[in-house]
Amino acid sequence: xxxxxxxxxxxxxxxxxxxxxxxxxxxxxxxxxxxxxxxxxxxxxxxxxxxxxxxxxxxxxxxxxxxxxxxxxxxxxxxxxxxxxxxxxxxxxxxxxxxxxxxxxxxxxxxxxxxxxxxxxxxxxxxxxxxxxxxxxxxxxxxxxxxxxxxxxxxxxxxxxxxxxxxxxxxxxxxxxxxxxxxxxxxxxxxxxxxxxxxxxxxxxxxxxxxxxxxxxxxxxxxxxxxxxxxxxxxxxxxxxxxxxxxxxxxxxxxxxxxxxxxxxxxxxxxxxxxxxxxxxxxxxxxxxxxxxxxxxxxxxxxxxxxxxxxxxxxxxxxxxxxxxxxxxxxxxxxxxxxxxxxxxxxxxxxxxxxxxxxxxxxxxxxxxxxxxxxxxxxxxxxxxxxxxxxxxxxxxxxxxxxxxxxxxxxxxxxxxxxxxxxxxxxxxxxxxxxxxxxxxxxxxxxxxxxxxxxxxxxxxxxxxxxxxxxxxxxxxxxxxxxxxxxxxxxxxxxxxxxxxxxxxxxxxxxxxxxxxxxxxxxxxxxxxxxxxxxxxxxxxxxxxxxxxxxxxxxxxxxxxxxxxxxxxxxxxxxxxxxxxxxxxxxx
Length: 588
Known about the structure:
The protein is of the alpha+beta class and about 600 residues long. Helix content is about 30%, strand content about 20%. It has 13 helices and 23 strands. It has helices at about 5-20, 50-60, 65-80, 100-115, 120-140, 150-165, 170-185, 215-230, 235-245, 280-285, 290-305, 320, 330-345, and strands at about 35, 40-45, 310, 310-315, 365, 370-375, 380-385, 395-405, 405-410, 440-445, 450, 460-465, 470-480, 485-495, 500-505, 510-515, 520-525, 530-535, 535-545, 545-550, 555-560, 565-575, 580-585. The strands form five sheets. It has an eight-stranded antiparallel sheet with strand order 12-13-14-15-23-19-18-17, with no helix packed on it. Strands 10, 11, 16, 20, 21 and 22 form a six-stranded antiparallel sheet that branches. The protein has a five-stranded antiparallel sheet with strand order 5-6-7-8-9, with no helix packed on it. Helix 6 (about 150-165) packs antiparallel against helix 7 and helix 7 (about 170-185) crosses helix 8 (about 215-230). The longest helix is centred in the first third of the chain and has 21 residues, at about 120-140. It is globular and about 75 Å long.
């Protein structure tokens, strides 16, 4: 193993910080051995997933402290979240038992790759634990009672495959193969994986499927690939490679995953998703298929590096600047992806630079299974969504705006931030009010907000020419309760020198454009124009009406989804009158 490479260096930094958060001074059995989260001021029930990277680190360095920490984590878990049927609960106060799949994979992978560093007694104990877990999973996830998100049954396939490889029980191999075959039926014609919803066959009024990019690339595909690789199923590996290539269309040039639209968008972290395990788990097993997979693994790794502070991976791009602490869930989960990179012999860098799909200037690509359009033209990268799954921006929303010169400019959040998964999400410490980061039309009536992004029935049309990409949207302003008011229209015109956004609302109101902006950016407002000067670029917004800020130019709004600070720009809409905003980006 190459000791000085970037992967190992980052993994060691994370593991050392996790060791510093392990509870060792308190002898109470409900606390001793667990990891204490500095963001949530609590213990996450899945913290023992760190056993895999910790055991790798012990093996690589020869230092027993890592193996000892791993043993203590397993013992804490056995004492506090174990149930009589052999399963684990999600947390001490969360009864979901399907979470057992992740512990089973982590301990099994630790044994398969690094079990030789354990004493015989501990190794035997861990082997009994994973066999007990596999027996539970074998009976718990069946075709008859399968009513959960697809990531769990994909991970069940991986868990059973791992335990089969470890102990040779053929029934686990057979069931893993059955799940692989069954789940290939959840790949849509556009090769996105569907089923990330409690009803995995759910179809919306528009014919859309339940798809979440973050969970697909960081959990479902990685564990399907792992299971197929263990079973030697080359045909399935080829199918999953094609699916991963389709998902890779959504990776931004900086290595981020554009999950600005997914059905579990509430847990988007820019580099992936909360509580998931990392895309590298799949990408490193697919390197032989296409060098672009190695490039994607590397760029996403470098994003981890940029978003790591004080030894922990932060939950989004600007958490640190917003003063929000890092939840350790990101670190102990994504550390497993780094362990996978090292155990598959991933080199310190790709041998050659390979363009990601979204770096190519192709115009527009459409994903019918989710009603999402991707734009890549004239240096602009954008996502337009009229996806009609609940709890996410729709209505032809501009959910991502990214420019080669500036990086991220707009990044959608939940329409209204709430803790959909209270134990797996963060409540902002420094934001006094919920602020939606999605560009939108808003109209107040009777004290209620009616927004364009609530309209799941909105329609989107596209036209392209040599000089421009035109996206037209028509819909109605709605409250969250689906109370409909007047019609609206939006038109996005992407050209070499600008993005023009034309807006019309029958009821009037205002158009809100939250632009990603650091506290250090210089902001100037003058009548119908606003300029933001960053360290990389100058962003200018000109409008056919005066634009304004509702707070001081040095104030910012933060949202945990995506994890960005923004400067919201407001433009008044008069009933039935179209306005235009023109956005230009130039190098500093």
